[in-house]
Design brief:
The chain has one domain (about 1-70, about 95-110, about 120-180): Histidine kinase-like ATPase, C-terminal domain (Heat Shock Protein 90, 2-Layer Sandwich), CATH 3.30.565.10. It is about 30% helix and about 25% strand. It contains four helices and seven strands. The strands form two sheets. The chain has a five-stranded antiparallel beta sheet with strand order 1-2-5-7-6. The protein has a two-stranded antiparallel ribbon with strand order 3-4. The longest helix has 25 residues, at about 35-55. The relative contact order is 0.21. Its EC number is 2.7.13.3. Keywords: ATP-binding, Kinase, Nucleotide-binding, Serine/threonine-protein kinase, Transferase.
């Protein structure tokens, strides 16, 4: 198991670096080639959201990116329960994971103020006005990126808080059938 930690400044140009690193580590971890583009896009969305939030709230603070390759030898023991190093059991077989964690330090007050938690990622995707929100596409809210991430990653966990948001995305490490 290997973990690569990358800190980037809140600059859009550094999102490209994060995408390239994620694709490289995913490829090395054994993620199928057909999934690499999904990882690249999901990491780009998560990092772009973090960059936009940092530009508004804390432009000098770094954004943390962790790439966790669980494809190596199985660890002897691991007491952590919320990382990719855990072995998930599905139908009696072990599934190894590749996990990407993007952590920002911008307050997620709008997420904390939400009272209806039924579909928080889909609420407010479309804006009524003509204004483009920071980090958003004209007519769409910045939450659209989080909705895209949930469609691209196999597992997603989003933890908003007053001291930042942590976006965890993971994919199973499976052999590439086209490699045979």
């Amino acid at each position: 198991m290997a973990t690569i930690t990358l800190t980037i400044s809140a600059l859009p140009a550094h999102v490209r670096t994060a995408r390239l690193m994620a694709a490289t580590v995913a490829r090395r971890a054994g993620i199928p080639a057909s999934t690499i583009d999904e990882i690249r896009l999901a990491v780009g969305e998560a990092c772009s959201r973090a960059v936009a939030a940092h530009k508004l709230h804390c432009p000098t603070q770094p954004i943390l990116l962790q790439l966790i390759d669980d494809g190596g030898p199985e660890p002897v023991s691991d007491s952590r329960t919320d990382t990719a190093s855990r072995i998930l059991r599905a139908n009696g077989s072990a599934t190894r994971r590749f996990e990407v964690v993007v952590s920002d330090r911008a307050p997620a007050q709008e997420a904390l103020e939400q009272t209806d938690h039924t579909e928080p990622l889909l609420d407010g995707l479309f804006l009524d006005g003509e204004d483009t929100p920071p980090g958003g596409i004209s007519g769409f809210s910045p939450g659209l990126g989080l909705a895209v991430i949930t469609g691209l990653a196999d597992e997603v966990k989003i933890d908003p808080g007053e001291h930042g948001t942590i976006v965890r995305m993971s994919w199973p490490i499976t052999p590439d059938p086209s490699a045979n």
